[in-house]
Design a protein that fits this description.
By secondary structure, the protein is mostly helical. The chain has 9 helices and 3 strands, in the order H-H-H-H-H-H-H-E-E-E-H-H. The protein is elongated, with a radius of gyration of 20 Å.
């Protein structure tokens, strides 16, 4: 279809059926009408500057040993962009809900930023675990970290989810948005839980951005 025709159609007041919306945009989109997504834009004031702060602190006050230096840098990079992608996901989700109703482009944009948030957040946790020779979660522990990993992998490996019939019948995506949060066929994460993930990442990012004081700060954090 010519894009100009599509744009005109989207601007028209057309009431598509529940079946069309849920099949051709995403499962449950016809009932996705509201979302209470915590505003995390001011939670960690240094989050836009973690990488810059790390560089300056490492260059002028003290630095980690080479391997830990790489772990810390990449953790901070992932954590910083987990915050920015969450903020973009929040805004684009509200844009979808408040501006164009069931506009497929806005939904796709929101889902893209949520997917980026999941990936950045998961890799941030994985880097911390690797740095300290630990694990992010225990299998089947039901933790938010395990569900974060599941949702991320389901979006990352969408082709295998399609091929193996691991999506809802006639669905377009393996993970979708609901009023309460993100959902797949077997995993959920509320918007409040997504915000808690950022709080956990910020706790460590604020410490690791300053290698000189990190060891003492981590000891105090562990009690």
């Amino acid at each position: 279809m010519d894009c100009r025709v599509l744009k005109r159609l989207l601007k028209m007041s057309i009431n598509f059926s529940t079946y069309i919306l849920d099949r051709h945009i995403a499962p449950g989109v016809s009932t996705f009408i509201q979302a209470d997504i915590p505003d995390m834009s001011t939670w960690a004031k240094e989050s836009p500057y973690w990488i810059a702060n790390f560089f300056l602190n490492s260059a002028f006050t003290g630095s980690f040993a080479p391997q830990m230096n790489a772990y810390a840098y990449n953790f901070l990079r992932r954590a910083q962009y987990a915050f920015s992608e969450y903020n973009l996901a929040r805004q684009s989700t509200y844009d979808f809900l408040c501006k164009d109703g069931a506009a497929p482009m806005r939904y796709a944009e929101a889902l893209f930023h949520w997917e980026c948030f999941l990936g950045q957040a998961w890799h941030a946790f994985a880097l911390l675990a690797a740095a300290w020779e630990g694990t992010v979660f225990r299998k089947n522990d039901g933790s938010v970290e395990e569900r974060l990993n599941a949702l991320y992998n389901q979006m990352k490996h969408v082709e295998s989810r399609i091929e193996n019939g691991q999506m809802l019948a006639n669905a377009t995506v393996p993970v979708w948005l609901e009023n309460e949060g993100l959902r797949s066929t077997d995993t959920t994460m509320t918007y409040a839980e997504a915000a808690e993930i950022l709080k956990e990442l910020a706790k460590y990012a604020d410490i690791l951005m300053n290698p000189k004081t990190a060891k003492t700060a981590l000891q105090e954090l562990d009690g």
